[in-house]
Amino acid sequence: MTRPAAPRRAAPDLSSLSVAEVEAWVTTQPRSRRPRLATVLMSDGRVGVRRLGERLRRELKAERLERHRCDGLLAYEKPLWEAGVHLIAGLDEAGRGPLAGPVCAAAVVLRPGTRLPRLDDSKKLTPEVRESLYGQIRAQALAVGVGLVDHRRIDEINILQATYEAMRLALRSLSSPTGAILTPQHLLLDAVRLPGADLPQTPIIHGDALSASIAAASVMAKVTRDRLMVDMDRLYPGYGFAEHKGYSCRTHWEALRRLGPSPIHRLTFGGVVNPGEGRADDAAG
User: Fold this and answer.
1) Helices within 141-249 (DSSP H only)
2) What order do you get walking across the sheet with 186-190 strand by strand?
3) Which residues share a beta bridge with 202?
4) What crossing angle do the helices spanning 34-42 and 47-72 adopt, rounded to 10°?
5) Could you give the 3-state DSSP secondary structure of residue 203?
6) Residue 6 phi/psi, 5° resolution?
7) What global pTM score does this model have?
8) Which H or E run includes 135?
9) Which backbone phi and psi does 141 adopt, to 5 degrees?
10) Cα(49)–Cα(39) distance, integer angstroms
11) 105 phi and psi, to 5 degrees?
């Protein structure tokens, strides 16, 4: 038996409420009523209530723009989803440029139609937003995989080949929240093709800013690697790994000149073995 809908409560007489009470009441209203509420508030005779209405209207506009931006991030995914290709893996990496630590790649398969507010190229996001998105992606994605290739392997085969190796590891480790291994049907990558991957691929210039799947992989790779470098800072104090994550910057070069390379430095990278050759004005990336 279907339970009858609860009767809709009549809106209070706003003129009988203080500005603070109006603000508290507005927060209890369903999202569908907010556009109408903004109009009502902006027609109130009190300046404080009109300001609430103006703020609500700005918030609604910002939400519309963000929805539009998120829809734009699915421009490469939508045609594939509509063609029945539902398992699309976005691939990206973090850590190609640092002087120390591993390179990290991530693969993410989003559920068709997924929209993640604030998702963007990880380099454009604050650490706090990246951490928040990391949890959302873990919870909402069909599958996530991460691959790490350490400094020794980077020195052995070079950073480009190590990056490809990390991407292949990420694909092989793609697993659902239940632990089931998932094989994607199509790859979206940031500007490159992945050698040795027997799957359809679409390289996208600036893909981490144009594709939700690649942007999600960018966030997962960046957060994973940053967390690891914070751990490395505790193991090898004095280099500032928690701050610059191993990238080239003045304080990193100063530490190298003072302490010499740590056990996780990439010895084939210019200036690491002879840090006097390193540029002191490089910025951390």
Assistant:
1) 151-157, 159-172, 207-210, 212-235, 241-244
2) 143-149, 103-109, 88-94, 186-190, 201-204
3) 188
4) 150
5) strand
6) -65, 140
7) 0.80
8) helix 127-140
9) -70, 150
10) 11
11) -120, 150
Domain 77-224 sits in CATH at 3.30.420.10
Q: What is residue 9's predicted lDDT score, i.e. its pLDDT?
A: 55
Is residue 24 within 8 Å of 36, Cβ to Cβ?
A: no
Strands (E) in the chain, as ranges, are: 88-94, 103-109, 143-149, 186-190, 201-204
Q: Each residue of 183-203: pLDDT tens digit?
A: 999 999 999 999 989 999 999
Query: Token match 């027997």: residue?
Result: 198
CA distance 20 to 222: 42
Contact, 189 vs 203, CB < 8 A?
yes
Tokens in use for 94? 């973090």
Dihedral angle, C-alpha 146, 150, 156, 158, nearest 10 °: 60
Q: Domain ranges for the chain, please list them.
A: 16-72, 77-224, 232-277
Across the chain, which distance is largest between two alpha carbons, in Å?
80
pLDDT tens for 68-114 read: 787 889 999 999 999 999 999 999 999 999 999 999 999 999 999 88
Q: Do 235 and 269 form a contact (C-beta atoms < 8 A)? A: no
Cα gap 222→190, rounded to integer Å = 14
Q: What backbone phi and psi angles, to 5 degrees, belong to 179?
A: 100, -5
Alpha-carbon distances, residue 181 vs 38, 56, 109, 257 (angstroms): 48, 44, 12, 45
